[in-house]
Amino acid sequence: MQNGLLLRADIHSLFDLGLMSVDPATMTVVIAAGLVGTTYGALAGAALSLPLDARKRPSLDALAKHFEWSDINANAAARRVADPSQPT
Hints:
Blueprint: H1 9-16, E1 20-23, E2 28-31, H2 60-70, H3 76-82
Antiparallel strand pairs: 1-2
């Protein structure tokens, strides 16, 4: 599969709704503020497990577009709650 992410059904729904994304700069999971304090909050900051073969990795461009579309990047508060060492 090219440019794909294998996601559990509930996480796939959150991804499609823009409530969860991947920061293309760090390849880590980011979540919307509304998910902080839920069971999904534990996923914030989790690193993607990437294939060794770079050709099989998700497209950085596609991840960047989703990240921008989701507007989670404007919500640094969710990341700070998950990882207080994150800058504001």
